[in-house]
């Protein structure tokens, strides 16, 4: 069995290149289909076992290899020898929807978020367009059900803070898309919003919480649980990552695991409609 966690890709392209000239799908496809080895602090990272499930969907193993010393009995003595130690994990990616499904592997990293960041660095460095990329991130999509319950049950929401990027997925929703378009028109890559009131509209706050979550943005909400109670703050990025426990990965069940990824995402995406 494997614990899979849901992530989203965010790509920010330099001003000198148009998104129409360099779509996100092309950037990711080139980086995945032309695998090579990158080295970070003496650790080698690589993609292997590539399976193109559909024209826009991939399975691959993400490998980390490092040199270690091991004792070997040789010529009557134990001697230290240098050898490579490799660990890997399973990754599924839809480059059209910019969704990533990463299997947990504590031998690769003790936090699955770290695997996402390492994969993002690898894809950026391995892209033939790396000079035109201002940023490439792979960040978790959180389970914000607890946040939505707090928003709906609070006496009042008194403050909200969140970030937004110029470049966001097509399904980001009206609020984040509107702010992203604004950032684009005023030539800004990203922005922050802070809003305060005696009582913010909980329906809009809940919708924003979902949009912030699925677009790799960060956000927090300050609320009064009851009329005279002390204020509390809940942060989206501190919620658990959406995950699923799935069967072992084999070539014949790659499409089935992709379907699990879509269901996990669609369930939380529809929750904001």
Mean pLDDT: 83
Number of strands: 12
Per the principal axes of the C-alpha atoms, what is the gross shape? globular
The end-to-end distance, rounded to whole angstroms, is 33 Å
Number of helical stretches of at least 4 residues: 6
Spans with pLDDT under 50 lasting ≥5 residues?
A: none
Please give the share of residues in helix: 25-40%
Most strands sheet:
8 strands, antiparallel
| Estimated structural class | alpha+beta
Q: What gyration radius follows from the Cα positions, in whole Å?
A: 21 Å
Strand content: 35-45%
Can you lay out the helices and strands and say which pair or pack?
Layout: E1 2-13, H1 24-33, E2 37-40, E3 43-54, E4 57-74, E5 77-94, E6 99-103, H2 112-126, E7 133-140, H3 145-153, E8 156-165, H4 174-185, E9 190-196, H5 202-214, E10 219-224, E11 232-235, E12 243-246, H6 254-270
Antiparallel strand pairs: 1-6, 1-7, 1-12, 2-3, 3-4, 4-5, 5-6, 8-9, 8-10, 10-11
Textual characterization of the structure:
By secondary structure, this protein is α+β, with helices and mostly antiparallel strands. The protein has two domains: 139 residues; 94 residues, no CATH class. The two termini are 33 Å apart.
Write out key terms for the chains shown:
single chain; 273 residues; alpha+beta; 2 domains; eight-stranded antiparallel beta sheet; four-stranded antiparallel beta sheet
Entry summary:
The protein has 273 residues and is an alpha+beta fold.
């Amino acid at each position: 069995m494997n614990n899979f966690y849901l992530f989203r890709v965010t790509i920010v392209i330099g001003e000198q290149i148009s998104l129409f000239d360099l779509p996100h799908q092309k950037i990711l496809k080139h980086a995945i289909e032309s695998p090579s080895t990158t080295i970070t602090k003496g650790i080698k990272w690589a993609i292997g076992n590539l399976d193109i499930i559909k024209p826009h969907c991939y399975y691959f193993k993400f490998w980390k290899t490092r040199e270690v010393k091991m004792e070997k009995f040789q010529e009557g003595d134990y001697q230290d020898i240098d050898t490579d130690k490799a660990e890997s994990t399973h990754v599924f990616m839809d480059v059209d929807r910019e969704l990533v499904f990463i299997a947990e592997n504590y031998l690769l990293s003790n936090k699955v978020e770290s695997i996402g960041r390492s994969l993002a660095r690898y894809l950026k460095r391995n892209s033939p367009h790396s000079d035109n990329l201002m940023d490439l991130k792979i960040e978790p999509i959180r389970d914000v059900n607890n946040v939505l319950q707090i928003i709906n049950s609070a006496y009042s929401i008194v403050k909200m803070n969140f970030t937004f990027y110029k470049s966001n997925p097509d399904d980001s929703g009206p609020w984040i898309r509107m702010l992203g378009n604004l950032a684009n028109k005023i030539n800004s890559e990203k922005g922050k919003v802070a809003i305060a009131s005696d009582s913010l509209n909980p329906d809009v706050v809940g919708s924003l919480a979902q949009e912030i979550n699925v677009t790799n943005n960060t956000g927090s909400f300050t609320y009064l649980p009851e009329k005279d109670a002390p204020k509390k703050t809940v942060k989206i990025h501190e919620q658990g990552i959406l995950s699923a426990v799935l069967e072992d990965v084999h070539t014949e069940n790659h499409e089935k695991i992709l379907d699990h990824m879509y269901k996990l995402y669609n369930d939380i995406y529809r929750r904001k409609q």
